[in-house]
Amino acid sequence: MKKKYFFKKMTFLLCLTTGVVYSQTGEKVFSNKGNIKIEEGTEVYIYLDVYNEQGDYISKDKYIGLENDGTMYLFNNLTNNGLFGYDQKDKGGTVIFDKETGKVVLAGSEQTSFNNVVFNSKEGIDLQNEISIYGKSVFQRGHVVVNAPLQGAMTYFDGAVIEGVGNDSHVVGTVDRQGKEDRMFPVGNGEYYRPIELRASKTVNDMFNVQYVSENPLTTRPHNVLRSPIVEVDNTEYWEVKNSATDANVILSLSWSEGTTPRAFHKDKVEGQSVHVLRWDETEKVWVDEGGMIEGENFVTTPLEVNAKGIFTLGLVDEAYSDEVKIWNAVTPNGDGQNDYFLVENINKFPNNSVEIVNRWGSKVFSATGYDRKGDGSENVFIGEADGKGVINKGKKLPSGTYYYIVKYEYTDANGSRWIKKAGYLNLENN
Fold first, then answer.
1. What residue segments make up the domains of the chain, in order of their start?
2. 250 touches 309 (CB < 8 A)
3. CB within 8 A of 418, min separation 6: which ones?
4. Closest to 405 measured CA to CA, from 355, 353, 334
5. Maximum CA pair distance of the chain?
6. CB 118, CB 101: distance < 8 Å
């Protein structure tokens, strides 16, 4: 059996005031008021509360504090009022929070930076400090509860990896993503893991903030206003997204769960209805249909980029709304007179319209306004080639496969005019 040392191969730098001391409450704590460096390959086990205070300057521009390039096992609380980090050049260092009784409290006035971190606290972690994660975070036991009133915050940067997250261990509260990489946010309500994914954004400085809530955040507003073709809103769960990005348009995915999502959205779904992503429009005071593609077992993804800001949830939409416009979802442009172009019957009766087609990765391959103006397929229609403004591989024949269409048109009746959006799968055989 491997022997556990309190300190093993540790290098101290100007560590004149570091060691076990008594706190104001008379309890023993491990206090660092100097500078500590834990070398690569070193394992350190600390069973007392850890207080890291502001360290000293080694030179004019080098300030260490507590630098962890090895493995730290912390079996109690951590308060960081100084510099707590790792050597970012070597990208080493792992901190493991492991506590059997009571919550781990992460507190302090200064941001704590982790390369790798393991959350293994049986009763969870009360996060009262700002933490940044650059490497791997492993969720083993207990929830990380972000205590926002006490300045708790949790930020993932590009390159960070999340493992082990599930119903038994996830984040309750807000999670930030800084960077432009895809990010599945490890959020939930303390009982169920309810992830949301934001795909790649534009710049490495983009900041997105996400929180899952099972109580309606719109209770003080008229939140039950629906516009066709939306027929029902999932009023049991919501994701609130904030951002500080110049261009916050991203592909967005929401999940459903048998434990939280009404059965009408997954088990008892009515034929002719589809599950889409809805966004609350605070200006119009209505839910807006952002479309939806089913991915995997329990994810719904917007086919195009949406402005990732506001309240999102799931909704059921009527696929057959306004039967005047009928969509044929097969295109075989082989000249036989059958399905040679993407047929949207009667769309010419609604001249204020647009048609977009995207591939399975959400990239636009076709875009047109005033689609099929004459209603005979003679102009401004999709024939299996990339065309339109802002599309990829413009002018090229597209490979056979499954695509996704978004048809929008202005519909007017006795109640006035409104925009109708229809979305679904399109099968292309382009041999």
1. 1-169, 206-320, 326-428
2. no
3. 227, 228, 410, 411
4. 355
5. 89
6. no
Query: What 3-state DSSP class applies to 214?
Result: coil
The tens place of each residue's pLDDT in the chain, 431 residues long, gives: 333 444 444 443 434 466 777 666 668 888 888 888 888 999 999 999 999 987 665 555 555 688 899 999 999 999 999 999 998 887 789 999 999 999 999 999 999 999 999 999 999 999 999 999 999 999 999 999 999 999 999 999 999 999 999 999 999 999 999 999 999 999 999 999 999 999 999 999 999 999 999 887 775 555 566 777 899 999 899 999 999 988 899 999 999 999 999 999 988 888 889 999 999 988 878 888 998 888 888 999 998 889 999 999 999 998 877 778 889 989 999 888 889 999 999 999 999 999 999 998 888 999 999 999 999 999 999 999 998 887 888 888 999 999 999 999 998 877 778 888 888 889 999 97
154: number of Cβ within 10 Å: 21
Tokens of 3: 């022997």
On the CB side of 356, CA atoms within 13 Å amount to 19
| Residue 224 host element (H or E) | none
**Which tokens sit at 110?**
């200064």
Burial of 336 (0-12, 13-18, 19+ CB in 10 A): exposed
> What residues contact 206, with CB distance under 8 A and at least 6 apart?
177, 178, 179, 180, 243, 244, 245, 246, 248
Q: Give me the amino acid identity at 97.
A: F
Minimal CA–CA distance to 289: which of 414, 183, 407?
407
For tokens 């791997």, name the residue. 136
Query: In this structure, what token pair is assigned to residue 232?
Result: 């029902």
Is residue 213 exposed (0-12), middle (13-18) or buried (19+ Cβ within 10 Å)? middle
